[in-house]
Amino acid sequence: MSALHGRKVPRVLSIAGSDPSGGAGIQADLKSIAAHCGYGMAVITALTAQNTQGVRGVHAPPAEFVTQQLDAVSDDIAVDAVKIGMLGTAGVADAVGAWLRRVRPPVVVIDPVMISTSGDRLLEPAAEAALRDLISLADLVTPNIPELAALTGAAEAVTWTEVVAQARQVAHEHDVLVLAKGGHLMASDTPDALVSAAGEEARVSGPRLVATSTHGTGCSLSSAMATLRVTTGSWPESLRRATTWLRAAIARGESLGVGSRGGHGPVDHLGMLWDAAGVKPYALEA
Ligand SMILES: Nc1ncnc2c1ncn2[C@@H]1O[C@H](COP(=O)(O)OP(=O)(O)O)[C@@H](O)[C@H]1O
Ligand SMILES: Cc1ncc(COP(=O)(O)O)c(N)n1
């Protein structure tokens, strides 16, 4: 059942890092929330200097300033769902945890961002314990295969069976629903599934797209799940809708012409909506 109580637009807060190249982090989250008809808000936990090829630097704000941003939002606006991404430092992770315990929005999704697609660290090792505490406060956690390995202490899964086993372990240890993702498998399909301590609850899968536009897919998926969960009231339905949308957004990502110098380009978050609405760039209308 929808938790909107007669309103139409979910109010969704992203707590994440900034990617100035626009494909991941806060920038991806806001576009994904908009693509799912939500009102997006953003508390910035870290500034990164990155592009589609890699991360050049990370600048962390004082933890007290993250708290100030969080309070400025929640003192004024009822947040329907929160998506948490890059946290960067232990101090920031602790500040987000303290706010979450105080405010606890109805839907909490955590993407436990640790290492970027380009292989750069986005969470200092000292912050891993604080991240684990946060996961236990969430409704849904969305680790990719390397993040599952870091959370369980196991080697990186190479089969879907191993992915699900590690996801079950995380679900059991943190009493949380896990979205297990097969994006990093060397397989011809890309399964994603909701996994509880009891096992797989719902699975979707499709053929692996031959695409380089995968920068920010995890950010975009977790924000879509947070937004859709408010509208649909169902995690399996949210997964179906989010992954159908994401596949199309990956497929048309290359046409943006971003990341064509050898990097991983972003997905096209909003193009399908513009096409469906018949919206055309002015330059083409003349
Ligand atoms: N080549 C691909 N084709 C289709 N879907 C993909 C592809 N790569 C990633 N995905 C999808 O993108 C989402 C993010 O997956 P993943 O890459 O595992 O996470 P992350 O972006 O956090 O590393 C998942 O839904 C996954 O199935
Ligand atoms: C600010 C920020 N947050 C998250 C990611 C991870 O995204 P991806 O794993 O797709 O590179 C990123 N690269 N930058």
From TrEMBL:
SUPFAM superfamilies: Ribokinase-like (SSF53613)
CDD domains hit by this protein: HMPP_kinase (cd01169)
Residue ranges of every copy of the Pyridoxamine kinase/Phosphomethylpyrimidine kinase domain listed in the record: 19-267
Name of the featured protein: Pyridoxamine kinase/Phosphomethylpyrimidine kinase domain-containing protein
Keywords, alphabetical: Thiamine biosynthesis
Family matches, as Gene3D superfamilies: 3.40.1190.20
Lineage: Bacteria, Bacillati, Actinomycetota, Actinomycetes, Micrococcales
Function: Catalyzes the phosphorylation of hydroxymethylpyrimidine phosphate (HMP-P) to HMP-PP, and of HMP to HMP-P.
Pathway annotation: Cofactor biosynthesis; thiamine diphosphate biosynthesis; 4-amino-2-methyl-5-diphosphomethylpyrimidine from 5-amino-1-(5-phospho-D-ribosyl)imidazole: step 3/3
Classification via NCBIfam families: HMP-P_kinase (TIGR00097)
Catalysis performed (reactions): 4-amino-2-methyl-5-(phosphooxymethyl)pyrimidine + ATP = 4-amino-2-methyl-5-(diphosphooxymethyl)pyrimidine + ADP; 4-amino-5-hydroxymethyl-2-methylpyrimidine + ATP = 4-amino-2-methyl-5-(phosphooxymethyl)pyrimidine + ADP + H(+)
